[in-house]
Amino acid sequence: MNRDVVISGGGPVGLMLACELRLAGVDVLVVERLPEPDQTIKAGSVNLTTAEAFYRRGLLPAMDEVVRQNFEKIQEFLKSRGGGGPGGPIPVGHFAGIMVASGGVDFDDPAFRDVGPAARVVVIQQQAVEAILAERATELGVEIRRGAELTGFDTDDDGVTVHLADGEQVRAGWLVGCDGGRSFVRKRAGFAFPGTDPAITGRQAMAEFEGADGLPAGWQHGTGGLYVLGPMPGRALIVEFDGPPADRDAPVTAQELEDSLRRVSGADIRVKKVHSATRFTDNARQATTYRLGRVLLAGDAAHVHSPFGGQGLNLGIGDAVNLGWKLAATIRGWAPEGLLDSYTTERHPIGEWVLEWTRAQVALMRSDVRTKALRQVMSDLLHTGDGATYLAKKLSGVLHRYALEGDHDLTGRAAPDFAFADGTRLGEHLHDGKALLLDLAENAALPETARGWAGRVKVLTAKCVGEPALTGVLVRPDGHIAWATEDGSTTGLEAALRRWFGEPA
Question: pTM to 2 decimals?
Answer without folding.
Answer: 0.95
